[in-house]
Design brief:
By secondary structure, this protein is an alpha/beta fold. The chain has helices at 10-22, 27-40, 44-55, 83-92, 112-116, 128-137, 151-162, 169-182, 203-219, 241-252, 260-276, 280-292, 295-306, 312-317, 342-354, 395-402; strands at residues 72-75, 98-101, 140-143, 187-194, 223-230, 238-239, 325-330, 335-340, 368-371, 378-379, 384-390, 405-408, 420-424. It has two domains: 64-152 and 180-315, Pyrimidine Nucleoside Phosphorylase, Chain A, domain 2; 325-408, Alpha-Beta Complex (Aldehyde Oxidoreductase, domain 3).
Length: 425
């Protein structure tokens, strides 16, 4: 039906999702449907029906008995987007429970779970009883979708990734909202990326998705707001799983990494404000205090320990999983670092093992990129502006990375310090 441009009734979508869950409808048929829907679209009623079907495919958690407000954040994904690793323990340090359910790498973007799993021993799968106990004791948990939480979304998410059917808001909204409502968060903040490294390339497209996410969340009873943010340049200094954990650790320890720190504080303040219905300025002061005092770092360490992670290497060496080979990425001309094809950069790192080409692929956490210079800085010909980390030496790889960056005669317009273009509610 969808192949020929037809419209599904809500009960048809519900039966389709249930059939995939039981195995009656195999992956190859679901993949065909995804492509048909990608090409022909889903209307508002079909999108809402898909959200409800995914939401009620598993258990919907309720943490009200724990006696504290709950909140979570979702990003539509980016290159170097390690914000959740800092934000979740930071918000928890402000007295808000954060039951964060995250995903793996999707297309050219990195996944929070893949980053967390570069910490030796870190468990991203907990039972419902373990979730409740840790949330009550520590205040924050960061896990993947288990069999009890919107399991149909987990299955669909994996197939969207490998069938290149990601960039449609009628897939994105049901996937995100079903998962966030099911996890039991009563306040939700959405970080909708716009630019070369985002699934929404234009600000108008990002704004439209942001509004739909907020509206759908509110319709299901959650307080919600969204930010449209810049994804035309890698966030912070590091791209790649282990490198991003290291950068997050540095920010939690008080380092002021440009972009990463400011965006984290903006999103965290919104979460605390929505959860407690407090003024945003007061919440901003609260999250800054929790980050600068070390309270957020303490929460992070307790969360990692509770989920079986070992931070000894990070504490001792200040890094995780050093790569066997590193090569400098150099400028081919003098000028100003002006732009980056972030999607192409992400695709290259996936190709070299930093992400998945197929859902069964293993990730090499060592693969990544460290920026040595920032957007708008002047470089000389032959000067290194980034360092590429690989499993083996590859000079051609460095040249391919260099081609993702543009060097111009003049500096581009400055991005906002916190990378935020606008707030929507």
């Amino acid at each position: 039906m969808k192949r020929d441009g037809g419209r599904h009734a809500p009960e048809e979508i519900r039966a389709f999702i249930e059939g995939h869950g039981t195995g009656a409808i195999p992956d190859y048929q679901v993949s065909a449907w995804l492509m048909a829907a990608y090409l022909n679209g889903l209307d508002d009623a079909e999108t809402d029906a898909l959200t409800q079907a995914l939401l009620h495919s598993g258990h919907v958690f309720d943490w009200s008995a724990l006696g504290r407000p709950t909140a979570d954040k979702h990003s539509t994904g980016g290159v170097g987007d390690k914000i959740s690793l800092i934000l979740a323990p930071l918000v928890a340090a402000c007295g808000v429970l954060v039951p964060m359910v995250s995903g793996r790498g999707l297309g050219h973007t990195g996944g929070t779970l893949d980053k967390l799993e570069s910490i030796p021993g870190f468990r991203t799968r907990l039972t419902p009883d373990e979730l409740r106990a840790q949330l009550d004791r520590v205040g924050v948990v960061m896990v993947g979708q288990g069999p009890d939480l919107a399991p149909a979304d987990g299955r669909l998410y994996a197939l969207r990734d490998v069938t290149s059917t990601v960039e449609r808001d009628y897939f994105i909204v049901p996937s995100i909202v079903s998962k966030k409502i099911a996890e039991g968060a009563s306040a939700l903040v959405y970080d909708v990326k716009s630019g070369s490294g985002a699934f929404m390339k234009t600000r108008d497209a990002a704004r439209g998705l942001a509004r739909r996410l907020v509206a759908t969340s509110r319709a299901l009873g959650a307080r919600a707001a969204a930010f449209v943010t810049d994804m035309s340049w890698p966030i912070g200094e590091a791209v790649g799983n282990a490198l991003e954990v290291t950068e997050s650790w540095r920010v939690l320890r008080g380092e002021r990494v440009a972009g990463t720190r400011e965006l984290t504080l903006t999103l965290a303040a919104e979460m605390v404000s929505l959860a407690g219905e407090a003024p945003r300025q007061k919440s901003r002061e609260q999250v800054e205090g929790a980050l600068d005092s070390g309270a957020a770092l303490e929460k992070f360490e307790r969360m990692v320990e509770a989920q079986g992670g070992d931070l000894s290497e990070l504490r001792a060496k200040g890094s995780l999983h050093p790569a066997p080979a590193s090569v400098e990425v150099v400028a081919d001309r003098e000028g100003v670092l002006a732009g980056c094809e972030c999607d192409r950069l992400g695709e290259l790192l996936v190709e070299w093992g930093g992400g998945r080409l197929r859902k069964e692929d293993a990730i090499d956490p060592r693969v990544g990129l460290t920026m040595l210079r920032s957007r708008g800085e002047r470089v000389k010909r032959g000067e290194a502006f980034a360092r590429l980390m690989l499993a083996r030496e590859d000079r051609v790889a460095a040249a391919r990375v260099a081609a993702c960056f543009s060097i111009e005669a003049t500096a581009p317009p400055a991005a906002p310090a916190d990378l935020v273009f606008e707030r929507l509610e």
